């Protein structure tokens, strides 16, 4: 397990995580979880989201943490409604998504990597 995934391990089920995966076909997938390691394994084994099946290998591009599942779902929806070019900015520009989500949705997220 790499350090990137270790940062997002479940801490007693209290935190939720928004993650962005680079797929083998060049697409970008956004999802939420409360256990990053378990979710990544599900994607790798073909048991993750229907969208990611057959699109591996995967690279975890970025990971953010939030306090509740509701907030994570709202951030996930916010990210998914943007075009790919904007999604790339979300994971390449250090605090871009953090600031944008707070300004527009009033939700505090923390970028883990």
What does this structure look like?
Strand 1 (16-22) and strand 2 form a beta hairpin. The mean pLDDT is 90. The chain is of the alpha+beta class and 113 residues long. The protein has a four-stranded antiparallel beta sheet, with helices on both faces. It has a single domain, classed as 3-Layer(aba) Sandwich (GIY-YIG endonuclease), CATH 3.40.1440. The radius of gyration is 13 Å and the shape is globular. It has helices at 3-6, 36-44, 69-80, 84-92, 96-105, and strands at residues 16-22, 28-33, 59-66, 110-111.
Mean pLDDT: 90
Return the CATH architecture.
Answer: 3-Layer(aba) Sandwich
Strand order of the largest sheet: 2-1-3-4
Largest sheet, in brief, is: 4 strands, antiparallel
Number of helices: 5
SSE order: HEEHEHHHE
Structural class: alpha+beta
Rg from Cα: 13 Å
CATH class: Alpha Beta
Helix content, binned percent: 25-40%
* The number of domains: 1
For the secondary structure, the number of strands is 4
């Amino acid at each position: 397990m790499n350090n990137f995934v270790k940062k997002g391990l479940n801490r007693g089920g209290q935190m939720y995580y928004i993650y962005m995966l680079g797929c083998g076909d060049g697409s970008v997938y956004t999802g939420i979880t409360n256990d990053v390691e378990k979710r990544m394994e599900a994607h790798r084994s073909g048991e993750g989201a229907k969208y990611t099946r057959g699109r591996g290998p995967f690279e975890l591009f970025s990971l953010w943490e939030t306090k509740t599942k509701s907030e994570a779902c709202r951030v996930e929806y916010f990210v998914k409604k943007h075009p790919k070019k904007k999604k790339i900015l979300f994971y390449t520009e250090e605090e871009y998504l953090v600031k944008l989500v707070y300004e527009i949705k009033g939700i505090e997220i923390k970028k883990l990597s």
